[in-house]
Amino acid sequence: MSVEPRTASGHSIVLGAEVAEALRSGRPVVALESTILSHGLPRPDNLRVGREIEAAVRAAGAVPATIGVLAGLVTVGLDGAGLERLALTDGVLKVSVRDLPVAAALGADGATTVASTAAVAARVGIRVFATGGLGGVHRDAQQTYDESADLAALARTPIAVICAGVKSILDVPATLERLETLSVTVLGYGTDRFPGFYLTDSGNPLDWRVDSPEQVAAVLNASRHLDIGAGAVVVANPLPVAEQLDPALHDRVLAEGLAGLERERISGKDVTPYLLAHFHHATDGQSLAVNIRIILRNAELAGRIAVAASAHRPTLAV
Length: 318
Ligand code: PSU
Ligand code: MN
Description:
Blueprint lengths: L12 E3 L1 H8 L4 E4 L2 H6 L4 H15 L3 E8 L2 E4 L3 H9 L4 E3 L4 H7 L3 E3 L1 H10 L4 E3 L10 H4 L4 H8 L3 E4 L8 H10 L3 E5 L3 E4 L2 E7 L2 E3 L2 H14 L6 E4 L10 H17 L7 H12 L3 H25 L8
Parallel strand pairs: 1-4, 2-3, 2-7, 5-6, 7-8, 8-13, 9-12, 9-13
Antiparallel strand pairs: 3-4, 3-6, 10-11
The structure holds pseudouridine-5'-monophosphate and manganese (II) ion.
């Protein structure tokens, strides 16, 4: 691994001081994405939540590494000013893997998606990543081919991604089929049902269930030692039923949002931010509160998994 500060002639990944030290000494580190902050949550809650996510990782005993692009510098471990800039400034780009070289070359500010955050994190040796929900196959994908780059990125990136499944705005069964095709490992955390982001259960079964951070760490270590080019390990962590969004409200608001997409001719990378914002408005902030709970729970679990992974447990007893 060679990750140096950017020189006049080249572009490299920049590590924050605390993250650099943690990686050098083998301390647990959890990567965090910034698109959630810039494009997924409304201001000014987004900045407060960004700080709370980092605090949740720390409370579990790991070092948070929020990833983003500042004036073209791909940065792992944003400091307070960097976090604030991506959360509160207008014009921050939504940067997936294919956009990273452009943002870097042009010196732009960018927020990284699940795909680009995972890619950058794995590149610098981080093995655990927390987010809210993955991107996936959109409901009209048969016509539009709209499938998030998150899936293809996870297929080739060896990292654990702790999430509450994929956003319920997507075609969940189709996304699960694609994850199978792409050989992405999917584990239910304390469940054998795939979570539905705002909802505890998406209605889809899973093949594998784990019940502790040590079991997840054992899968990660096996994946690494087998060295068969496996991709990501998705750890699907459902909300408790008592904390989910009311399913009837969810279904009504989703139907309205999907109709709005068509009416306002929203497409491409604007689809996900549009639907998330619609949920936040149409549920009077209820979906926002649920979304924040999801992320904080995932950050905390990711911290515990990173701690377990840094302790090396060789076998999985399921
Ligand atoms: N999940 C959320 N909020 C978000 C996203 C996911 O709860 O804002 C973001 C993630 O960064 C994810 C991206 O990678 O949406 C997927 O966008 P698209 O469907 O355009 O690939
Ligand atoms: Mn898309």
